[in-house]
Write a structure and sequence with these properties.
Aldehyde Dehydrogenase, Chain A, domain 1; 7-stranded mixed sheet; 6-stranded mixed sheet; alpha/beta; Aldehyde Dehydrogenase, Chain A, domain 2; about 475 residues
Length: about 475
């Protein structure tokens, strides 16, 4: 089996060790062996990025745009192949995986255009005879740390703007999904990115991640992952005055009011809570349902869940693939036990099941008779587990929806313009959905949350420039 190597300073290099990439739908299937970098190689990557920065940041924006466009087109051209790889290593169904790959390609193409649209301002001074210009410049070397649940889309929405705005990158992907990261790196290299501008350093977070966050020549760090890790990264980065951007999950509510269209409510709940095996930071894991529709809604959701197929991510007809690995499966099962011990009623699912191939298969779990103070309604589970919380009316439902330390995404299903408008204004979330699932956002608009979900500037779209650039004010005597 060919060893997949790190890409540092324009060269594919071995690591200090290697790990096997295992298919969660079939643990007998080894996708490949991937090199694991050490701190010495991380040092080389950062210094290579630092050396490459002056030429890349001041070079032709046309050339930069064309490189990004080539990357995007190559991803789109290979979406079938890459989608299969993604489904095989992460466990989301093949249609979902292929869609994620397409989104990554669209992100690079979007930022190919953004390269040419970074605007400044020219203003008069309050002092006669002076002109004032306000421009944006790249930061320098950016450390990017990405999670396993979107192994090509999230790297794309960090790498593309970083390169577009003239920065150089050291990219550390999640250990569980090196395949998609390595394939993306191959595409970036083939598109003609100069040596040192982009570096791939695969390895454990406690080694590569820590070294990247604490490196004095890394000017900014963008991280997506757990809340605890995010807080540690923030403390380290801010401690040495580096810029930091964090996305740290959610405990997202979907409010279903009495006047909701039942089919729409069920689709929003099932799609948002359980698709992608519930392994989305935008998943609607709290279903806040008012009394008049509560029983009908639960009955319809259970019927829909019983019809979902849990199986190999690559099989036709699979609705829900496996959990990503044994550790995540155990965490899901632990929370299912916690919910039952707290007095919630496990109405369906929550069972580990066997299929034709050995994998981490868990049936979608739905809890009812829960209260907002239960741990299963406070803590992010990150699996195919959702809870129903009964509310008397809209006002109580809104209060329950906002009663969380997270604030990423929130949704409401209603036919009332009054309640929809009020919810959009008073929901304490960075993204609000009306009659659509809480999971799923476009690539050209800002992504991010409030409270404990996010820290720093928004990701995606033109708002990405807020993180990947710095503002310069310059005065000129007329």
């Amino acid at each position: 089996m060919t060893l997949k190597k790190n890409y540092i300073a324009g060269e594919w290099v071995d690591g200090e060790d290697a790990i096997a990439n295992i298919n969660p739908s079939d643990t007998n299937d080894v996708i490949g062996e991937y090199a694991q970098a050490g701190t010495a190689q991380l040092e080389e990557a950062v210094l290579a990025a630092r050396r490459a920065f002056p030429a890349w940041s001041t070079g032709s924006i046309q050339a930069r745009s064309e490189i990004l466009d080539r990357i995007g087109q190559a991803i789109l051209d290979r979406r079938v192949e890459l989608g299969r790889l993604l489904a095989r290593e992460e466990g989301k169904t093949l249609p979902e995986a292929t869609g994620e790959v397409a989104r990554a390609g669209q992100i690079f193409k979007y930022f190919a255009g953004e390269v040419l649209q970074l605007r400044g301002e020219l203003q008069p001074s309050v002092r006669p005879g002076l002109d004032v210009s306000v421009t944006r410049e790249p930061l320098g070397v950016i450390g990017l740390i990405t999670p396993w649940n979107f192994p090509i889309a999230i790297p794309a929405w960090k790498i593309a703007p970083a390169l577009a705005y003239g920065n150089c990158v050291v990219f550390k992907p999640a250990e569980l999904v090196p395949g998609s990261a390595h394939a993306l790196a191959e595409i970036i290299v083939a598109a003609g990115v100069p040596a040192g501008v982009f570096n791939l350093a695969m390895g454990p977070g406690r080694v590569i991640g820590d070294a990247l966050v604490n490196h004095p020549h890394v000017d900014a760090v963008s991280f997506t992952g757990s809340q605890n890790t995010g807080r540690n990264i923030a403390a380290a980065a801010i401690g040495r005055m580096a810029k930091v951007q964090l996305e740290m999950g959610g405990k997202n509510p979907l409010v279903v009011l009495d006047d909701a269209d039942l089919d729409t409510a069920v689709e929003c709940a099932v799609n948002g809570a359980f698709f992608s095996t519930g392994q989305r930071c935008t998943a609607s894991s709290r279903l806040v349902v008012t009394a008049g529709i509560h029983d009908r809604f639960i009955e319809a959701v259970v019927e829909r869940l019983n019809g979902l197929v849990v199986d190999d991510a690559l099989k036709d007809g699979t609705h829900i693939g496996p959990v990503v690995d044994e550790r995540q499966l155990q965490q899901d099962q632990d929370y299912i036990n916690i919910g039952s011990d707290e007095g919630a009623q496990l109405l369906c699912g929550g069972e580990r099941v066997e299929r034709a191939t050995p994998g981490f298969y868990l049936t979608p779990a739905l809890f009812t008779e829960t209260t907002a103070d239960m741990r299963i309604n406070r803590e992010e589970i990150f699996g195919p587990v959702a809870s129903v919380i009964r509310a008397d009316d809209y006002e109580q439902a809104l209060a329950v929806a906002n009663d969380t330390e997270f604030g990423l995404s929130a949704g409401i299903v209603t036919q009332s313009l009054k309640h929809a408008s009020h919810f959009k204004r008073f929901s304490q979330a960075g993204m609000v959905m009306v009659n659509v699932p809480t999971a799923g956002v476009d690539y050209h608009v800002p992504f991010g949350g409030r409270k404990g979900s996010s820290y720093g500037a928004r990701e995606q779209g033109s708002y990405a420039r807020e993180f990947y650039t710095t503002v310069k004010t310059a005065y000129t005597s007329a």
